[in-house]
Amino acid sequence: MSEQQPELSIIIVSYNSWEFLDLTLHSVEKALEGIPAEVIVVDNASSVDVVANIGQSYPSVITIANKQNLGFSKANNIGLKMAKGRIAILVNPDIIVAEDTFKKVLNYFNEYPDVAGLGVRMLNGEGQYLRESKRGLPTPAVSLYKMLGLTSLFPRSGRFARYYHGNLDEKQNHKIDILAGAFLAQKRDSEGCFELLDEQYFMYGEDIDLSYCLSRKYGANHYLGTNPIIHFKGKSTITNAWIYKCFYQSMWIFYKKYFKKKTFFLVNGLIWLAINGIQSLKIAGLTLKKSNNVIPKSKHRNVLLVSSGSNTKASIQKLYQEADIKVEKEVITVDQFDLIVFDLATTKSKYIINVLEKFGTAPYAYLASNGKYLVENSLAGRKGQVLHL
Fold first, then answer.
1. Region of residue 384 (phi > 0: left; psi between -120 and 50: alpha; otherwise: beta)
2. What would you report as the CA-atom Rg of the chain, rounded to the nearest whole angstrom?
3. Which CATH superfamily is domain 8-129+170-231 in?
4. Which of 93, 116, 113 is nearest to 223 (CA)?
5. Which residues belong to any copy of the Glycosyltransferase 2-like domain (predicted)?
6. CA distances in angstroms from 60 to 2, 34, 41, 372, listed in the order given
7. Which of 63, 141, 182, 221 is the most buried (most CB within 10 A)?
């Protein structure tokens, strides 16, 4: 990375997700080649010494170690306040970007200087499109349609599916209301400052609030459907009662902040009851989930290792001892394999993303560039798991 005045400031908040953060920093480092930039990692008191790990593997990255978990909003604001770049991009610690992702973001801001905020299309580790990549403003009506299930029943409706802008082609560029905090870019305002996140939100909802603030102050938010990235999603969080409370109470914070004073008090009461009622049902359902949560072990028989390395196969064979492992530099088909492993040390991120786009949902895994572990996304319903070699 250059010593020039940064064009970009990449801000990453981490919490107990070192292996995924490692994948993120590896891809970010490749994507920033030739761009004057800085990377700032704010760690929220992870159990692993993230600062030491980053110092060993990514010495140019700026690190801040919080003594306690300050939450997503406060930690990102620490990064935003110290950022020196012309454009700041909030990036989750479980992202893989293509080698040209940041160049495309810079070019877009240069071509459209009136952009308020910018987001991108996201795929999960199995190649599925993540609907939260583009969202509409969660007004009471829009939120009600989602809670009633109308969004799922009419996924392409301009009215009922507005929560995810379901009427807009996911692979095209659009002006949208709400961006995902997993990858959210903004430029400095006329006074040289970045828009900060509302610290009422500990986790969840802060990206909705930030998007709304950006659009109200500076114009339209834009979505790059032509610029996909991989977002493993939820790797620094564990589903529990506290997480559900953060998620649903963030809805009430947003509603109270922007809509409560404009709405009839009986409607406000119904909204409050709906949010807290669903929250209670979700928390109650955790007990049932835990009692029935039997996760099958992955027994792979036919594995495709996408790599040009000479020693990688032996490591994978130790992990999947009963598997027939085929090594290829390119993916011709995914149908005959029950696992496709990408070697990040020898395979470009952009090629991997292109494979996900071409072949769609499949059981993929991602071998870290240091060869010490892989992230496997091959079990249905799993967010992914880290397997150490």
1. left
2. 21
3. Spore Coat Polysaccharide Biosynthesis Protein SpsA; Chain A (3.90.550.10)
4. 116
5. 9-181
6. 10, 15, 11, 22
7. 221
Question: Which CATH architecture best describes the domain 302-388?
Answer: 3-Layer(aba) Sandwich (3.40)
Judge contact between 306 and 329, C-beta under 8 A: yes
183 — phi, psi (to 5°)? -155, 100
Mean pLDDT, rounded, of the chain: 89
Percent of the chain having pLDDT more than 70?
Answer: 93
- Give pLDDT, residue 266: 77
The tokens for 294 are 């039997």
Cβ neighbours of residue 6 under 8 Å, at least 6 residues apart?
A: 36, 37, 38, 83, 84, 85, 86
| Count of CB atoms situated within 10 Å of the CB of 309 | 15
Within 10 A of 146 (CB to CB), how many other CB atoms are there?
18
Give 1-26 pLDDT, tens digit per residue: 446 789 999 999 999 989 999 999 99
